[in-house]
Each structure stands twice: as C-alpha cells, then as structure tokens.
Amino acid sequence: MGSPCNMHEAFTVFPFWEARGRRNDFHRGLRSPRVLTNGEHVKKHLLTAGAGVLATAMLLSACSPNNGADSSDEGGSGNQDAEVKVMWNQPFFSMNNESNTGNATANSNLVYMMNDSFKYYDPDLKLQENEGFGKIEKVSDDPLKVKYTIGDKAKWSDGTPYSAADLVLAWGARSGNFNTKDADKASDDEGNVKKQKGENVVFNAADPQVARIKDFPEISSDNKEVTFSYPKPFADWEANLALTDGGLPAHIVAKKALGTDDAQKGNDAVLKAFKDKDNKSLTKIANTWNTGFDFTKLPSDKDLLVTTGPYEMTEYKENQYVTLTRRDNYEGDRKPNIKKVTVRYNEDPTAAVQALQNGEVDAIQPQATADILKQVQGIDGVKTDTGDDATYEHVDLAMANGGPFDPKTYGGDAAKAKKVRQAFLKAMPREKIVNDIIKPLNDSAKVRNSFIQVPGSPSYDQIVKENGIEQMYGQQDLEGAKKLLQEASASKPKVRVMYAKDNARRQQEFQLIKEAGDQAGFEVVDGGDAQWSEHLPDTSRYDASLFGWQSTSTTVTESEANFTSTGQNNFGKYSNKDVDKLYDQLGQELDTGKQAELEGQIEKHLVDDAFGITLFQFPSITSYREQLSGIDNITVAPTLFWNYYEWKMQ
Amino acid sequence: MIKFLAKRIASSVLVLIVVTFLLYVLTDLAIDPLQELRTSTSPNKEADMAARTQQLHLDVPSPLRYLWWLGGVGGCFIGRCNLGSSWKTHQTVLDMLPGAVGTSLKLVFAATIVAILIGVVVGLISALRQYTTFDYVITFVTFLMYSLPVFWVAVLLKQYGSISFNNYLQHPRPNWPLIIVISIAAGLFWMGAMAGSLRRRLINLAAATVITFAALTYVFTSGWLQHPGLGLVGSLVIALGAAVLVTHLSTGLNNRRSLYAALTTAVVMGGAVYYGMQWFYHFYNPTVWLIALLTILAIAVGVGIGLAFGGPDKWQSARTAGIVALIAGVVIFIDQAMQYWAKYSKMSQISGRPIRTIGAGEPGLEGNFWIHTVDNYTHLILPSIALILISFATYTRYTRGSMLEVMNQDYIRTARAKGLSERTVIMRHAMRNALLPLAAVVPVDLMTIIGGAVMTETVFGWSGMGKMFADGLHQADIDPIMAYILIVGILSILANVVADFVYGILDPRIRVTA
C-alpha cells in the first residue's frame, strides 16, 4: 500500500540530493568558483538542521493516515456482474433508428440491445422468432393479412405494456403514408426536417416495404393483436416491422407531442390520430418522432430512455462511450448474462487493436487489413474470427455508353456485344483475386457466386445451382475469351475500368484484372478515380466498374434496384424484360422456396446476358478476449451484437 | 495604438473571409455527403439521395451556400449565432463546441506548458555548451523528434509505455539491460550538461550513472511502482532541494535572507503542511476549486514567509519562497494522487493495467476526487508525451539560437568584466533578453492549442476540436469543419495581435504603432 509511513521512500529522492549538489557546479564550465565555496559553506550549516528535521519527519510519518488504502476488494467480477466493452467506430446519436437520418448502424446496434423485436437474424441469416415479445403470422393469403400478436412479457421499461399503439406508430411513421408534404421539401438550411406547424404531417421516413401497408389495421379490443392487410401480395412480409426494435414508445411520444400524462390516454390518442387521420395531432407526433429522440449525450429527460429490451442506457459521455446496464424489471426472453455493455468510440483500427491488447476493450471489429490481422493474431489471450462482411465486391459492365460492351459499337449487333462482355468476364481472374487478396484475411473466403444473396443465406446454394455462373465463369478461361473476341471480330477492345483510386485493395484487384484482360486480348485502361462513387452514374467515364454493394438485409426485394431496367443502381443500363417481370413476380411471391427459384431464374438471365460478375464478400475481423464467449459475428446489422444475450464473461 | 488595432482587425477580417471562402469551396469539392448512399442497396435509395440533396442544398453552388453560412456567422455579432449543425447527428455546431474545446484544452494545455519549460531549459543548456558533443546530440535528438510522425510515435508509446509497462506491473520482472542503458544514457546526459575538466566529467558520468541505476533499481525491484508515494520524508527532501535550487537560480545562495526564507518555506510546506494535509484529505474529498484555492494559499504562505524575513530585498525573498511553496504544494498534490494509485489499479475496470491507451476517462469509474485525478493522468500521460516530444524541439531551437546571439553581445562581456557572477550574467542579463523571441511564439502556441491536435486526438481517442475536424471530414459534414477553421483562424489572428503587444511591452525597443 502507498503508505506515507514507509521508510524506504527516502531512497526515491536520491536524485534530488544529487541535483542540488550538481546544480552548484552548474556553471563551473563558465568560471565561477565563488558560488561553489559559498554553497559548500551553507551546506555544512544546513546539514545539521536538515538531519534534525528529517529525523522528526520519519518519526511523524509513522502515524499518518493511510489515504489510498482500499477498504474493499473491487475485483468482484462474478459472472453475473461482468461488464463487456466493445469498440465501435461511430457514436450513437438517435433512439429513433427508423427515421431517414437516424438510420445508421451506430444507432441500430444499441437500439437492438435496448429493445426487443418480433424477429432477429441468426448466424445463418434466417429470421428467428422472439416469442416472448410477440408473434407474426399470416392469417390469409389473398388478400395478404398478417397478424402481429404482442406477448404479455412485452413491456416498456416504465411498466407500460407494449401495445397496438406502438406498432401503429411504427407503421404510420415509417411508411410515410400519412405525410401531407414531402420530407425533403420540409427541411431547413441545416438539413433537418423543420418542425411543422398546423396540419403539415411530415414523418422523415419513407420505407417502401412498410409503405405497402396502406390501410389502418384491425386491432383487438385488448390492444394486443394487430392485423395489417396488404393490398398486393408481398414477399417480405415476415421481416416487415419486425427487425431491430418495435419502434418508439407511443405513450412517450404522445406525452411529448400531445401533452397527455397518462400512458393509456397517450396510447389511445396516438391510435386515434392515425385512425382518424387527425393531421393536427399527427403533425405534432411527427415533429416529436423525427427529432425528439436524438441526443449525443445522456439526456436529462429519462422519458427518452424508455425501451422494451433487457438493457437501458445509463451513461453516455459525448463521443466517448455509452454504457447499457441490465434492467431488473425486464420480463422478456432474452435475459443477458452480462450486466453492463459499454461501447467505446474510436475509428482508428490500430488504436482499437492496442486498446484490446491493453484490456481497455473486450471486443473489436477493426477494418480488415493484413496488418491488422497480423497484429490481433499476435496478442496473447485474444481470439480472432475472420469471416464475411456485409459488402460484396463485383464488376459491372456499361452497356449503353458507346464503349466495347455496347451493341451500338457493333452497329447494333447485340450478340457481338454480348460476346465481348462474355470474353471480358471469362478472362476475370476471380479465383486468383480471392486467393491472393482475400484469403490472407479470411481463410474460408470463397468466390461469391450469387448476385442477390449473401453466401450462407438460406437460399444461396439453390440460387448458385440454378444461375449457371460456375459453368460459365467458374474457371478463368483466357483461351475461351480470345475465341469469343475473335468471333465478335473485335480486336483489342479498350476497356476503361473505374475503381476507388485511394483503395489499396482495389488497386491490387485492378492489377490482376488488367494482367488477365490484356492477355485475353483486351486493352485494359486504368480508370482509377478518387471520386468514383460520384461518377458511377456517368458511364461515359468508364466501361467496367469495380466496387462493392452493401447488403442491409436478406429480403428478396432489396436487389431489385440493381438489375431491373429502370433500377436506381443499374448504372450500366442493363435491360431485360424477363428480369423485370421476374422481379414483379418475386415481389409478390409468398413462398420462400419459390422465391429462391425466381431468384435463380433472375440470376440465370444475368449470367447469360453477361451483366457483370461477382467477386467476393468483404472480409471482416472480429477479435475478443478469450474470457468472453458467445461472440459470433453475422454479416448484416446488428453484426456482432446480434446475440448479446448469449455473451458470457469467465 | 487604436489605429494600429483597427487596421490589424480590419485586415484580419478580410483575410479570414478569403480563407474561409476558399476552404468552404475546397472542402465542398472534396467531400461527398451522398457517398454512403451511392453504394447502398436500400430500396428507397433514390428518395434518400433526393432528400439529402434537398436538405443540404447540394444543388446550390457552394459559393452561394458559403454566403448563407457567412450570414449565420455574422449573426454572432447580433447575438444570433448560427454556425450550422451536423446533418448526421442533428447536433448544432454551437452545441458541439464547448465539449470539444474543453477536451482539447485539457489535453493540450499541460503538454504545451511542459514542452515550453523543457524546451527552454534544454535550449539554454545547449547554447551554453555550444559545439560540444552534448550540443550536437541535443540538436540531433530534437530534430529527430520534430520530424517524427505523431501516429507512429503514438503507436510506439502505446506499445511500450502502456502495454509493456502494464505487463511489467502485472508480472514485475525488471528489464536489466534497459535499466543499464537508461542509466548510462542519463550519465552521459549529465556529463554533457555539466561540462568541466576531463576528471570532473568522468566523475559526473560515474556519479549520474550510479545514482540513476540505484534509483531505477529501487523503483523497479521494491514494488514502488505498484505502491508509489513520497512520504513525509520524500516531500521534505524535495522541498528542501527545491529551496536550494530555486534560491541558487533566483537570487544566488549568497543572499542569505532569501535562502533562509526558502528553506523555512520548504520545512513549513514540505513538512508541517504536508503532514496536516494528510489528515485534511483523509476527512475531506476536495474539488478542483478547493485545490485551486489551496494552491493560491500555498503561494501566499511562501510570499508571507519571504516578506517576514524582511531586509532590503524582501520581495526577492518573497518571490523565491513563493516558488518553493508552489513546488512543495504540487509535491503534496502528486503524493496524494500517488497514494490512490494502487487502489485505482485494482479497480475492476482497470484490472491492473493503469496506463490507458484511449479516451479521456475510464467508462463507469466510481471513486473520489483522487481516483478521478489518477484516472485523468493515466489517460493524459501518453498523448501528452507524444505532444511534448514533437513540439519541444521548436522551443529548444528558438531558445538556443537567441541565447547564443545574446551571449555574444557586448553588454554580456561588460557584465562579466565588471565582475558579476556567472549566475547573474546568465540568469539576469542574458536569459531575459534571450527569451524575448519566445514572446512571439508562445502566445500563438498557447492560443492555437484550443484548436487541438488533430492526429493526436484521433489516435488517442480524445474527442476534442481536432477530432471534430477529422470526423467532419470523414463524414462529409461541412459545418463542423468550417467551425474548426473559423475558430482556429480567429485564434491565430488574435494570438498574433497579442504577440505584437507582448513584444511591445517586453522590449522597449519596439513600439506598437500603425
């Protein structure tokens, strides 16, 4: 113990004795003997006095108070009291994870732990039921009717039961169906949706999947069953309004917006407002919903922290960390072992690794590079899992830019253009790219063979079987490529490949592609561009683009924008009527088996038409202390947080 | 004077407008708020992009948006400040600033002061030992430090200063080769700094090496690092040592009144007050304000003792004793914090690894004032060292250069010729003039510390001004970036004006006129 009574401590001050003596000689090099003599003289005098003082001091120090003595042993890290600290890159800023501005992983990870939801993803990306919170079941196919049954254990942390009002608020707000004015026309100079007055309802959200539900639902008398009906069949009904959280607490929103003080009255007011389309009340509700739950440090208003899940936010230091603490009055099914989860914020991957090594955090998910992987693997007592990330790398071809892949170049001969495209894709060194660049980061990395589904998702294998990509482009085929080029009588077509210039990994990929393309008889031109993402829609700049798409869910309708003729992400202007039709069908197909079949058919077209090619899933690195078990990363949000209730600290 | 000020301000405002305009337009070209949406596969991507374009007025040319922004800044003069807000978090920039400025101040203030002190001292010694090996080594080392990239220094500091050091604390096994190398290095340093005849130098070398070795051996083998503390004896000895040293530098040991005043202060503060404070802190948990008050009180005690010794030079004695009292007070404070070190180390959040690599404080730490003080220091130490290593070089070079210039001037020769002691020549005649050029550098440095340290803050996870700037760039959020630029711009202009005035006050040869 750091007792001031300790005799030994006199030793520690040796340098100071010495310093004094030496300081006297300090200027000796600059001739000044007089000072020295006087110094010596004085010293003699003082030594006697000094000895006396010190002797007294030693005697006195024997009876000083012991200030720093630890009265209790703080190291009580029993299993039930354990704390887990996770490093994340971006700070939390809103409890409303569903508005246009609040929708970010930084929010959804924490919102997920603080709230229960009807469903969640498991490691196989299958939707799992959270029955303690409620059930979602289809009650009729035509018209499609889906019943949400809320469980008895579903309660807000202030004791109010989760009820129909909360679900209706989530639907009404997220769909944007009640908006009387476009969200984007109602924003102010700072880019926030302005507080609206009068009867201008503006919920800052427009989720097209939720928006498919047009009518106010049927609600049981006990407010525990809500039945939504869809005007058209909808494939992804199971995931609708079911993931991450159950929305904001309606009774709190009502309290803030409408001034109701009783939870029951608040819920009723919200239901009534949506049912009667009472625009005056809805305007106020929307104002609260849009920004009322945004904060970047722990709010003094505890109402904003009312949640349905096992954790509640107990500390939030701006830009530094958030601490979630296990709630005692949580009744649901997902009771966690860990008492406190703290999320600390830092973007720097090396800083994350060193913080893990120094025990300041227990789990990290740094940006995956070879250096970082080497560093985390070198740490004792730390486990590292490598795996897939939500983003996948792919090459898209521009088909309407007057370039080598555009039929116009060949006088409108679509067959010729297709052969050139096929030749380019056949030359693609997919295996080599994965082996050289991704394998070092993720042992189990494989070439991704589906345009639509993430490897490991339930329908991936079936789709790959049907799309024929392995027969067509499974092996790099330089001879085949040369032959196809000859058939198309295209000599040395110039292909400009655009990629992120400042991204080292993409530079390497490009080098491999260039090497292979040049061998196959193309002239591959370096189109590296720092502003590549801005230039994606402008195909006059490139013929092939190399970049990543980030999947946010496994819903079947998500990929529509990439491949349909008018799709937002279809930059290359690919157009196939059959694909468009199949997507229409897919959007209304309710049977998951049939969905996979349709997806396979769509992909078959994409492969046959030489739309482009998929390369690999981005690698991810998850490192955590050995004492922490249960960490298991998944590729979609909420990534490693998905099974927080299974974490255990030994 | 007023004319000068008016002119300066007018031209500064113009410069500021041009600078902010250029940076606004350039930043806008460089960032792309839509980037994350462009590669999204979200079904409502188009609506998102349209909404964001509309929200941020990305369809309006940036010079026009600059004017809007400028309007908001202009509002500050009529009490309606509007520096915009972060579109990502909805937080207004005005709301972000206090926290960021506070964090930056906390991080950079101490580091800057220490860097100035070390830089000046090393620069002075280096000048006095011009063209010796010592001088060359110092020059080499300072330039080396100066050119080190901070992110690299930070990684090394974390690896050795934190991770390895904490490993040692958990499994104390002294690293003998390292201790020996450090001891010899310290010996060589003191030998160089002391100069003198060959025999004298060898004695210095041997003495300094042996003493450093003994001290390090004690620190690393006795468990002192796990349970540090100075104790009453240590406190007294340090105070007495400080008394002699300060007197020597300030008035010379010949001034007996001054010396006795300093020694009395040392005994009173380092002994009696130290002992009293042990009991005081045992019963009272202090606050920052109490500590500040006690510091002032300590200086007052020293000054009082100095004055009590009377004599014709009583204010000199008072000054000397005041400084000694301050040093002794700091020692009491440090000792008290040290006493809580072991308790802090054992807390469950720290679990035996007290030197931290990230953040400004440990999440969820509960404890009294001292625990939080220790927590502050364990987080501050690494970034501070990084900042000091890199910035003290400038001060060293400035001081050395101007000291050399001054030492070669006629009046120094005159001073020596009339028989003044070397201490008086250096401390009173040379040093004061040599420090003049620093008056131009230090205010600028002190004021711009509010701007924080972009790299250091980012690597060590301190969310100050620099991090706000870096995050703004990362997230394509122009308003925080502009706030940073505006504040740093205003401060550097202000600092330059202040430097002009300080110069004018300190150096009678310079007059501040239009």
From TrEMBL, chain B:
<feature type="transmembrane region" description="Helical">
    <location>
        <begin position="12"/>
        <end position="31"/>
    </location>
</feature>
<feature type="transmembrane region" description="Helical">
    <location>
        <begin position="481"/>
        <end position="506"/>
    </location>
</feature>
<dbReference type="GO" id="GO:0055085">
    <property type="term" value="P:transmembrane transport"/>
</dbReference>
<dbReference type="Pfam" id="PF00528">
    <property type="entry name" value="BPD_transp_1"/>
</dbReference>
<dbReference type="Pfam" id="PF19300">
    <property type="entry name" value="BPD_transp_1_N"/>
</dbReference>
<dbReference type="InterPro" id="IPR045621">
    <property type="entry name" value="BPD_transp_1_N"/>
</dbReference>
<keyword id="KW-0812">Transmembrane</keyword>
<feature type="transmembrane region" description="Helical">
    <location>
        <begin position="134"/>
        <end position="156"/>
    </location>
</feature>
<feature type="transmembrane region" description="Helical">
    <location>
        <begin position="287"/>
        <end position="309"/>
    </location>
</feature>
<feature type="transmembrane region" description="Helical">
    <location>
        <begin position="259"/>
        <end position="281"/>
    </location>
</feature>
<feature type="transmembrane region" description="Helical">
    <location>
        <begin position="202"/>
        <end position="221"/>
    </location>
</feature>
<feature type="transmembrane region" description="Helical">
    <location>
        <begin position="321"/>
        <end position="342"/>
    </location>
</feature>
<keyword id="KW-0472">Membrane</keyword>
<dbReference type="GO" id="GO:0005886">
    <property type="term" value="C:plasma membrane"/>
</dbReference>
<feature type="domain" description="ABC transmembrane type-1">
    <location>
        <begin position="101"/>
        <end position="503"/>
    </location>
</feature>
<keyword id="KW-1133">Transmembrane helix</keyword>
<comment type="similarity">
    <text>Belongs to the binding-protein-dependent transport system permease family.</text>
</comment>
<dbReference type="InterPro" id="IPR035906">
    <property type="entry name" value="MetI-like_sf"/>
</dbReference>
<feature type="transmembrane region" description="Helical">
    <location>
        <begin position="176"/>
        <end position="195"/>
    </location>
</feature>
<feature type="transmembrane region" description="Helical">
    <location>
        <begin position="227"/>
        <end position="247"/>
    </location>
</feature>
<protein>
    <submittedName>
        <fullName>ABC transporter permease subunit</fullName>
    </submittedName>
</protein>
<dbReference type="InterPro" id="IPR000515">
    <property type="entry name" value="MetI-like"/>
</dbReference>
<keyword id="KW-1003">Cell membrane</keyword>
<feature type="transmembrane region" description="Helical">
    <location>
        <begin position="435"/>
        <end position="461"/>
    </location>
</feature>
<feature type="transmembrane region" description="Helical">
    <location>
        <begin position="107"/>
        <end position="127"/>
    </location>
</feature>
<keyword id="KW-0813">Transport</keyword>
<feature type="transmembrane region" description="Helical">
    <location>
        <begin position="377"/>
        <end position="395"/>
    </location>
</feature>
